[in-house]
Design goal:
Blueprint (H helix, E strand, L loop, with lengths): L1 H42 L1 H14 L30 E4 L10 E9 L1 H5 L6 E8 L7 E2 L2 E6 L2 E5 L1
Antiparallel strand pairs: 1-2, 2-3, 3-6, 4-5, 5-6
């Protein structure tokens, strides 16, 4: 009986240690990517300005980003290399009923718990999003909000 209790205690201690180590590694990784996220937001500013100009001219955001070329921008920029998607994801009104946003841009940022914790399970994505009204719910996109400039970063 004593051996079972000692074994359970060892499992509990190992689990707590593993969790704390994983959280520390995740925080370190997030601090390393923060400058890239700030740069990605800055790189998207011409795209956001083009979306706003299009809306001013037509009364609504375009159906797709390609409609901005060539009148409002020479090309649709790509998100930074840390993003999972090679293109910005885009949604425009009509969004859900009562939603004041005109549009949102977003990209998924993969983080692999295998790499972070050197374990053999789990692959999740955070979401880096710009909402045209710059309001961000605390819990959305499957994660918890961190503000990064005018953008929201949702941690999975």
């Amino acid at each position: 009986m004593c051996g079972v209790i000692v074994g359970l205690l060892l499992v509990i201690v190992a689990g707590v240690s593993w969790t704390l180590d994983g959280r520390r590694r995740a925080r370190e990784w997030q601090q390393q990517q923060r400058p890239e996220l700030l740069q990605a937001g800055a790189n998207a500013e011409p795209l956001i300005a083009a979306l706003r100009a299009y809306r001013a001219d037509y009364g609504e955001a375009p159906e797709r980003l390609g409609q901005l070329v060539p009148q409002y921008t020479t090309r649709v920029p790509r998100p930074a290399s840390l993003f999972q998607s090679r293109e910005w994801q885009y949604a425009r009104a009509p969004l859900p009923a009562g939603d004041p946003r005109e549009f949102e841009l977003y990209a998924y940022v993969p983080h692999d718990y295998c790499a972070l914790q050197r374990r053999s399970f789990g692959h999740f994505s955070d979401c880096f999003v710009y909402r045209s009204d710059r309001t961000y719910p605390a819990d959305a996109y499957g994660g918890v909000l961190e503000r990064i400039g005018d953008w929201g970063y949702y941690h999975e």
